[in-house]
Write a structure and sequence with these properties.
The protein has two domains: 57 residues, no CATH class; 76 residues, AhpD-like. The relative contact order is 0.12. It is built from six helices and no strands. The N and C termini lie far apart (54 Å). The chain is elongated, with a radius of gyration of 16 Å.
Length: 135
């Protein structure tokens, strides 16, 4: 690898860490740390591509991006740990409890009631962790 490639990768990594911390804080750092003993390269990719490349693009703000992620992970229906991390992230970047609930409820139309129910239960756990009560 030449110096230019190394510098580009370094900036992607640095930019990615910054975005990861801004969105997910310690939860994101824990995910990355949990991969260090099994797949450190995957942890690096997780920082560089989603957060260093995609989340860093200026076309959407972080709140809008997290709304999309919460919707997508809810619709998948099989990504509860990641959904919880991104519900925290959505709250960290300005989503309200009510907005998170509405995003998840809307997924019942596209992904079915079981996926929406699982998403709502994940949100309930996150809200309890953060001591966020109904408005």
């Amino acid at each position: 690898m030449n110096q230019t490639q190394s510098s580009l990768e370094s900036s992607r990594y640095s930019r990615g860490w910054e975005k990861l911390r801004e969105i997910d804080g310690q939860a994101g750092e824990r995910v990355v740390a949990s991969l260090s003993d099994i797949a450190p390269d995957f942890a690096k990719y997780l920082i560089e591509f989603p957060f260093g490349d995609i989340y860093s693009r200026p076309q959407l703000d972080l709140k809008t991006r997290e709304i999309g992620v919460v919707a997508a992970l809810t619709a998948l229906g099989n990504a509860a740990p990641q959904l919880k991390v991104h519900i925290h992230g959505a709250l960290n970047v300005g989503c309200t409890r009510e907005e998170v609930v509405e995003i998840i409820m809307q997924m019942a139309v596209y992904a079915g009631f079981p996926a929406a129910l699982n998403g709502l239960f994940a949100a309930k756990e996150v809200f309890a962790e953060r001591n966020i009560e109904e408005a």
